Amino acid sequence: MIVATWNVNSINARQEHAVDWLKSAAPDVVCLQEIKTVDEKFPHDIFRQLGYETVSFGQKTYNGVAILSKLPMSEVRRGFEADVADHPRRFISANIGGIEIINTYVPNGQMVGSEKYEYKLRWLADFKKHLEDTRSSANKILWCGDFNIAPEDLDVYDAAAYGQQIMCSPAERNALTEIRAWGLDDAFRITNKEGGHYSWWDYRMGAFRRNHGFRIDHIWVSSALSGNCQKAWIDKAPRKLEKPSDHAPVLTELSL
DNA sequence: ATGGTGGATGGTCCA
Length: 256
What we know:
Elements lengths: L1 E6 L3 H15 L3 E5 L10 H5 L4 E5 L7 E5 L3 E6 L12 E6 L2 E7 L9 H20 L6 E6 L12 H4 L7 H14 E3 H5 L8 E2 L11 E2 L2 E6 H4 L2 E6 L15 E5 L2
Parallel strand pairs: 1-2, 7-8
Antiparallel strand pairs: 1-14, 2-4, 3-4, 5-6, 6-7, 8-12, 9-12, 10-11, 13-14
Helix pairs in contact: 3-5
The chain binds one DNA strand of 15 nucleotides through loops.
């Protein structure tokens, strides 16, 4: 079973790329972030025609997440905090084939020390509490999405310049470390030890052409699943197209 | 030079 995560930066702008990529990569489960549209306007029918069930938790203009799955989905959960009508839509989870799939769009944080940065850290603490209060790391759990954090210096093209900046700062990395300690591991790092692999490149300054990237999109698995991770990889092909998302899909193959 | 690119939107905000 192949599970993928992809920040599409608007499903409306990226629908054609998404359809073409699903046909070629043929993942079984795809977690999307930044769909930037409401559930009524999400192209459910387009993906159903490709053999996927779809669930979404979207909002106008910003954020929004969705899961596409060739296998049936159950126990769909939208949001993990007390329901607030206008709360940013960054979380959707479902049980797929006995695996608890959790798809999140972690806040960007904008700049270290800003209000948005404090919100990012709060959000990560709240997410950890969600795991502690409602889940068991003894179960098969797969957490994926745009984490907006590069876990280590080797996940950044220029750690000397960016090691203390947003997506890399110690407090953010510590927040991730605490979630890891609850019982999750980076699927990509199970089979890839070297640096230089990135999932996001800024649209500006020719960052992709110069491979000025960050590995901020992730698939993390509980120990009950980590042994099933055959491989994990980043598919840069969609990032090379005209009008791409600024993120590339990340995938893992699980033997089940 | 305080820039640069892209999406949603219809002013800017967000990334």
